[in-house]
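Known limitations

Structure tokens in this collection are predictions and should be treated as such. Users comparing against experimental data should check residue numbering before alignment. To illustrate the layout, the record for Type 1 glutamine amidotransferase is reproduced below. The input appears on top and the generated tokens appear beneath it.
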Amino acid sequence: MVSSRGRPYQEEPMRVAVIENMRNTGLGALAAALEEAGAEIEWFRVWQDGILPKEISGHDALVVLGGEQSALDDETHPYLPELARLTRRFGDAGKAVLGICLGSQILARAYGADNHLGIAREFGWHRIGVTADGRADPLLLALGGEFTIFEWHADTFSLPEGAVRLASSPVAENQAFRIGRAVYGTQFHFEANLDVVEQWKAEFPDTIARIAPGWLEKHAELAARHGGAANAAGLAIARAWVSLIEREEVEMLSQASA
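Generated tokens:
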């Protein structure tokens, strides 16, 4: 490929900023899709230092992961308002944005929707229904009318103005939405493949036992029944979103013209 001035472009690897709101969150299926695409990932561990990207020009896409806090916990997590503004800046610039669980709730906040706390508890593998718009959307196109995926949340949100609802469940009406070309929020944890779920099971047994009594004892059976389908759906969603990242081309001067 050459530029308008006849000079070759250097195809840089896509650069993706990942915001980790809670330690050891894990990218799971999304890591696999990004690796396939040769992406460069820069982690921002805001749970540790609150540091966010200063500019949007350094990255082609933004991922905001989940966490135990709510999207409105500004007092205990003072970076949240700035993070909401950052997601909006990426989206308004036409860049790909992905919010997962808490990330989707922060996206909803950024685009003027309401966050509803503690009214929509789901945990474990669940069936998610795909809307008519979702069946035609690149993110969920390969999944048909419903799919199985992992959930872990208690909060939900109203649909931002101008957003398209892509998926729904009886507990949380807004399971996935799109704004513009490639700003996506998923309430469900499509990144949570069997390896990620196993890690969460090992790290948070007391929390899981409290919110889902009996699940730990049934985990092996549930994983055998639902894990394969959830892994396949999660990887399909991850690959679909990664395919929407648009890289900025960097023009290179040839030695002859230098």
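For this record: Residues 1-9, 250-258 have pLDDT under 50 and may be disordered. The longest strand covers residues 122-130. Please report discrepancies through the issue tracker.
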